[in-house]
Amino acid sequence: MRDDLKGLEISQNELQLLTNLPVNNEMTILINPLKKIIRDWIAKIQGPEGATVVFIGTAIFLLSYIIFDVFVGRSFANLTNLPSWIILILFCFFGGAIIQLSLYIIWKQKLKILEENMTHSLNILLNDVDRYNAVVKAIDINNQIEAAGNSGVEIKERSKVIEALQLTRTDLIRALKTERILRENKKFILKNTDLFINNLAALTAMQVTEQASEHGKLLNEALQIALDVQHEMKRLESQH
Length: 240
Fold this sequence. Notes:
Strand content: under 5%
Structural class: mainly alpha
Radius of gyration: 29 Å
Largest sheet: none
Number of helices: 9
Shape: flat
């Protein structure tokens, strides 16, 4: 990825921090990381250091089996009359089942939290983030095609495209932060509509006399924020 694209994509971890919700919630299937470990191990065996990898893997397996046999296997072998290696297999099977069940329960709890807090605005913003990230990915793929020797796919006025992406990213992050504030304080805002309106009127009156001072500049910013909150408050009221 070229330097001007690095940092433009809104990652799932960043999205979770911005929304304070498990938006990247995916259930972990225990067998998937095991498959990856096995694939990586096979790839290393086929490499120049294959013998070393086999030796280390065998040593780790034997050491693990001996530790299990000494501390666990023999105790259960006396109770069940089963050999230690069968007990090890059973432990791995039932242990994996318990871990997978725990992962499923955690996934369901996160999914419930997300569903309870999902708003129409947040859903739209998340879709916008997906489309934005797709554009960044498409440009990255285009760059790779260009780097392979296909000069005809070069993006015209690339600097303007990158600048537009940067502005879009800033807007999306600001919108996500605003949505979170309004979502987490929705009940208070709806219960205190008069308070916000009264404060807005007071801020407007104060701004007339304080407009030229530094305090007036800060007040102007506060007034703008209050106007934005009032606008969003009316939108929220229309939804409920």
